[in-house]
Amino acid sequence: MFDGAALLHLIGIGKGVTRLKKNKTMIVVFVTPAVVMFSIIFLYPIIRTVLMSFFKIEGVTDAMSKWEFSGLANYIKLFSTELFRISMWNIFRIWFFGGIIVMGLALLFAAILTSGIRFKNAFRAIIYMPNVVSAVALATMWLQYVFSPKFGLFKSIGKALHWEWLEKFQWLDPSHLFIALLVAYCFGMVGYHMLIFASGIERIGTEYYEAATLDGANRIQQFRYITLPLLKGVTKTNITMWSISSAGFFLWSQLFSMVVSNTQTITPVVYMYQNIFGAGNSMTERNAGIGAAVGVLLSICVVLIFIVCDKIFKDNDIEF
Amino acid sequence: MKKKILSALLCTSMVAAALTGCGGSGGSGDSAPAAETPAASTEETPAAEEPAAATEEAPAAEASGESLVYWSMWDAAEPQAQAISQSIEKFTAETGIAVDVQFKGRTGIREGLQPALDAGTNIDLFDEDIDRVNTTWGSYLLDLEELAKANDYESTANAGLMAACREVAGGTLKSIPYQPNVFAYFYNADIFEEAGVTAVPTTWTEFLDTCQKIKDAGYTPITNDNAYISSLFGYHMSRLIGESATEEVVKNGDWDNPAVLKTAQAYEELASKGYFSETIESNQWPAGQNTELAMGTAAMYLNGSWLPNEVKDIAGEDFNWGCFSYPAVEGGVDGTEASNYGAQVFAINAKSTKAEQAFELITYLTKGEADALLSEMSVGIPADSNNAEWPALLSNVKPVMDSLTTRYPWGAGAEANADMTPIIIENFTKLCGGSLDAQGFVDALKTAGN
Questions:
Q1: Residue A13: predicted pLDDT
Q2: Is A72 in a helix, a strand, or coil?
Q3: What would the DSSP string read from start to end of A222-279?
Q4: What DSSP element (H or E) covers B168?
């Protein structure tokens, strides 16, 4: 856990903190704006969302007088709707399989980039580059070019290498669209998480590696017994960030199924959007209460993930 | 002491900064809605992908309490927005009425309009699809019967569309149509000619015959994209049992209805005879319309009359467009006289204090030169009946539009149940691609409904 007092003490202003604690007025003055803002911007919407999830509400901004109490009906409908179950399965697949791919590649690249290779900055910039390109442009590139069954990059590569399976692989059909989405999304996310891992690795003192080298440990052993254990905290940060971005997975899903959603790409947030603002071009029933219930369920999932992460990655047992 | 003063100063500046950050832009009333628009750049049309499109406003827009405030469904980069901007400039020059036009885009309007209206934002008029305006936002609309009568609006308006506006608004006029559109089969007339197809198919048998001739001539008879493919299902079902019955089937999950299997069997036949594009299952919009229809390798595509405009840069000005209504099927209740047709519509906020001025602007934009300009720039159908000349690319659409007497909603009922739409699309796409047979399609829908 983050210990602010310990940190302040470490950097030598512990005495200042002690003096500040005595000045309660000053504390109140400093804290009040934050508390007020937190209450308005976070607390109120959270309470309102939880409340909304028990009502049938046509328009998201409808006055409370228009809300119709429906008890647990929204939750029951969600769990009995195939499309919502599909969206939950999709988000789990994105989080779990995408997480393994992204974290694995990010760690691998981070380890390579911090191992003293030449052109480190250039490689780092290249791997990070998808993060500075608009997701709309990236998705268009993947959908209309790379995965194209007519003139796609993968098709051309398959042809050049005489790999018939790759040349004929239909990335965008209903059976493979999820894989295509995952590949495209992970491509864009590796660089971001790689940077976090790389900064974590660079924080580890060189003396540990020097000592290990003297003891006869090779690079792989150093990575396994020094880098990995000392990256626990950073890994936790990365998984937390990944979980948050996965839970709110929306844009890529929309881009991979323009106009109307798709069973392979729909996520709970897209499902929520459809229930609040309507689906596709047709006039469909709207219920912001169901949208709110989706939000509550997602929040519970994220909190559970954090609890599990906290249990698995206890990083306070190692100090360096 | 010095530290206390410094602390107090820091605290004051922090609070001031926080308040400044939360503050508005001083009466313009449009900074918050503008912030809602980035989502508009994420979907629907290529034009919507232009980053500038989400926030750009017309040069004429001057946010002042005296201006008419118009929230537009178009993105600033789209030809419709450019035509409207030009016409508004003229309108202001002629009448002296300033207009604050804010191009929100489809998503911006869909997400932002109702919250803005609920919050009392100063919006005098807005536009969107005929169904969404009249149903979703129906309670916010001003009744326009009186204004229309007083201005003799209907003397040069499209009677069918005015009737449609009244129908969706529950019998009264709450919106004014413009940019009419029709949903039908659009085809490459040169391919038809080369294949020896002399008349457009009006029955399913003729349609099958047309497909065979096109295939024999070496072209792909039918293509489509994931965004519109459910309409194939909806139109066939509606031809068989009518649109309202189709909607009931989709909403209630009545997949045992014989029309579902019959529709699936018709499409299984099309697939088995090789009438669909080989890549139909992989066609993510706009791949089918751009790389097959517009490039001249596929002949037919069921879509709206906006299609020629969307692909004109790829297809070229010399692309010979044709259009026909979805064919009638044997034993069906609806024929080629039924289809989805409609328009974008203007509506006036019931709380607007400038309703007459707003109606004046609507009249200006939907008639005469402004309507002709919009039609020309967007390759769209004119709304003013005096503007008899349609864009050349749409000349073959006019007979179809004129022949329609029954109006289907979007997708002819296929997308009436949002919880089923993606499941229908997935399985229908597989059916068209040949990886699922008719019974498999019905079984998949039944399984999903449980």
A1: 53
A2: coil
A3: HIIIIIHHHTHHHHHHHHHHHHHHHHT--HHHHHTS-SS--TTT--HHHHHHHHHH-S
A4: helix B159-168
- Which residues in chain A touch residue B409, judged by CB atoms under 8 angstroms apart? 282-283
Please indicate whether, in this complex, the C-beta atoms of A262 and B425 are within 8 angstroms of each other.
yes
Query: Nearest residue on chain A to B137, judged by CA atoms?
Result: A59
Per-residue confidence of chain A (320 residues) as pLDDT tens digits?
Answer: 444 445 445 445 555 555 555 688 888 999 999 999 999 999 999 999 999 999 999 999 999 999 999 999 999 999 999 999 999 999 999 999 999 999 999 999 999 999 888 999 999 999 999 999 999 999 999 999 999 999 999 999 999 999 999 999 999 999 999 999 999 999 999 999 999 999 999 999 989 999 999 999 998 999 999 999 999 889 999 999 999 999 999 999 999 998 899 999 999 999 999 999 988 888 888 999 999 999 999 999 999 988 998 888 875 666 66
Number of cross-chain residue pairs from A and B with Cβ atoms under 8 Å apart: 152
In whole angstroms, how far apart are CA B204 and each of B236, B246, B270, B284, B431? 10, 19, 11, 27, 18
User: Helices B438-449 & B421-433, crossing angle to 10 degrees?
Assistant: 160
Paired residues of B138 in beta bridges: none
Mutate to test the interface with B, among A57, A133, A260 (most CBs of B within 10 A): A260
Judged by CB atoms closer than 8 Å, whether chains meet at B419 and A26 is answered as: no
- Residues paired with B181 in a beta bridge: B342
Give the start-to-end residue ranges of the domains of chain B: 28-181+341-395, 183-340+399-449
Fold of B183-340+399-449: D-Maltodextrin-Binding Protein; domain 2 (3.40.190)
Chain B closest CA to A241's CA: distance in Å? 22
Q: Which domains does chain A have, with CATH numbers?
A: 53-317 (1.10.3720.10)
> Residue B418 in contact with residue A279, Cβ under 8 Å?
yes
Domain B28-181+341-395 CATH superfamily: Periplasmic binding protein-like II (3.40.190.10)
- The single-letter DSSP state of residue B395 is T
User: E strand or H helix at B69, and its extent?
Assistant: strand B68-72
